[in-house]
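Quick one: structure for this chain?
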Amino acid sequence: MSEVSAAPLSLREAVELLNRADAIERLSPLTGSPLLLVDLRQPGEIPPQSELAAASDALARIPAPSVALEPRRPSQELRSLLPAFDLVLDREDDAEHIVRRVQRNPLASMALVQLLRHAAGLSIEAGLVQESLVYSTLQAGPEFARWLASRKPKPALAGAEPSVLVRRELDRLHLQLNRPSKRNAFSAEMRDLLCEGLTLALADSSIEEVLLYGEGPDFCSGGDLDEFGSLPDPATAHAIRTTRSVARLLADCAPRVRSHVHGACIGAGAELPAFGGHVVVEGEASFALPEVAMGLVPGAGGTVSLPRRIGRQRTAWLALSGAPLEAEQALAWGLVDEVRRNAA
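Got it. Here's what it folds into:
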């Protein structure tokens, strides 16, 4: 795989590269650069509109993620080009961090941005199927294999209590994640019990509100890493994800779903609440998508739910950077709808 150039391209250089007949080969982790980094802060002479339009079209087709360094006061021509990039940044340090992350897992990074580019025109159901197919493919890839080999396997231990507590209270259904000793890591049992509870809500119209929350210091620390790679093959994993889909069920009853989150909201802990109608942060919370560092993409529906709340580029930033997003910024972006600070 090729190295990412440390020096970003100028606007003119990027437009010329994108408009080449072999742009896809040159901007691919297999045969060229795994990332396109363009500095628009000093664009110089703006290329003709026809060349900019062709470059914008090419940005949707190249395999490599595209990152732009944004000027403080972009011209009208640049404002029309910026939405075509996968990621727009205003700090060079952030760009360097993204470069390192993409270099480490170029195949997962490529798959992520391709998913996000094409998900906008899909229904939630179609988007979930597309995400699962890509996730399954990456499970059979070298980057996930490398991550999996770096871990020491641990035997899965059954808890004394169910991993989700389901309780009916008049017209409310309470779904409480109940693995506090594992920071409510999202397990197969948790998935199955959530599906049962949400199916009940869909079948019973007298349930007017579904409350989703977690026991312990964290809402959900993401997928249970001890279960990663435990299914017999990626095809079976895809069949399970699209049959027992918490994301689909949450989306189906979204207007009735209120999620109360706190502490770590990682992976599934960020992706699933975003399908609901209202997300409340109780106290402090931070959100993160760590999957690309594992050689994967978000697999609990995040490439579908998050762009609908915060847009494609911000979702790409979360996933490619792996950086945490704090509650106030999540509120400003629209990932959550309300922040309730605990009384002193």
